[in-house]
Amino acid sequence: MFPRRRIAAPLLAACTAALLTLTACGGGPDPARGPTGAPAEVAIATSGTWITTFAPLWAAAPEMAEIEQKYGTTISYPGFGKGNDALTAMLGGSAAVCNCSFNTALKAALAKDQLAYVVNINKGAGTVAVAATRFETERGTDIAAFDGGTWGFTSAGSISEISLRLAAEHAGIDWSVQDTIAVGGMSAFVPALQSGRVDIAMMDVASAAQAIEDGVGYPVLNTNDLSVFGPIGGTLLGNGLVLPEAFLNDYPELSQDLVNAVVTGLGRVRDVTDPDELLALMPPGFREARADSPTFAREWAFTRPAFLSTDGSSSDQEFRDTTAHGDFGEGELSSPRAGRFLDNSLVDQAYQQLGLPRPVVEPQSTP
């Protein structure tokens, strides 16, 4: 269903000759060229800095260094507070590549921009439901027991809100009558739980690990675990590398090498259970950001299942599961642009070029 795409030659010629705008050509102005003709810098815009959910990207540091040497380029990872901002950076031309959430990038692709989601980094919502410790004995992990309580998430429409709503509705709760609070940034989760402002919140894994380590909360549901969340929300496509089609066409070998690096990084981390062993695989910046080993051990335990259910590719069913929870119209998802967005061909080629056996992933589980 998702063939490799090529922008028609007349369109490329028109874009090159007329120096058309970003939204018309699917990319910003051509970046400065290095000695090999590749961009002098390949900026991979990402949400946050050294986020554990993106471990395959960080674990690919040796391969990224080889790419820098091969092409005479520099690879950087500008971090942004929100995924939307990372996507905007790529669309605006200040970044070449985006480590973006699937639905966020697909929405942009459906609007105007010619984009391709070329390798999946994680599956699942990337969140953990954590409840205040005062409820642990009485309610445990029974989400239905929180009916009538106060529910926290980052913002309306966020994956934090969506995954919390799905969990509540799966437990038979009428979400429309619940007391919900958008706490804002991820740093507000632990204080909101500690102060009693919320009874239960759907947090990022780092906040969840910190809340538990501090004795403020306890885990109720890990959306990264397909065996648990699959029956609730299906198999959700998380973040992945998104490239403008213009970049794919201008730098096909570089694009393939970037995907090869991420596939290698994924294989490097997916079977690691020991958090100390995982840290040893990571670049210095990641290790410094995770200096609190007890907290990271919890964080890794929450995160690792997100890699067991992916080999870097994405299926038709996962496309349907993921877009079912996005703001898409029926006509949008059946459009040619939707069909062109998901491209598994570079992942398929990566396993061939690298000579790696394709890992056995967790079976899909749908609601």
Briefly summarize what is shown.
Its main location: periplasm. The protein is an alpha/beta fold and 367 residues long.
Number of structurally distinct domains: 2
CATH fold-level label of the largest domain: D-Maltodextrin-Binding Protein, domain 2
Q: Estimate the global geometry from the Cα principal axes.
A: globular
**Tell me about the biggest sheet?**
6 strands, mixed
User: Approximately how much beta-strand content do the residues carry?
Assistant: 5-15%
* Structural category: alpha/beta
Q: Unreliable segments (pLDDT under 50, ≥5 consecutive)? A: 1-29
State the total count of DSSP E strands: 11
Q: Provide the CATH top-level class of the largest domain.
A: Alpha Beta
CATH superfamily of the largest domain: Periplasmic binding protein-like II
Please tally the helical runs, counting DSSP H or I stretches of 4 or more residues. 21
Radius of gyration: 21 Å
State the end-to-end CA separation: 23 Å
Judging by the overall fold, what is the CATH architecture of the largest domain? Answer: 3-Layer(aba) Sandwich
Mean pLDDT: 89
Helix fraction by DSSP (H/I, runs of at least 4): 40-55%
Family: Belongs to the bacterial solute-binding protein SsuA/TauA family.
Subcellular location: Periplasm
Keywords: Signal
Protein name: NMT1/THI5 like protein
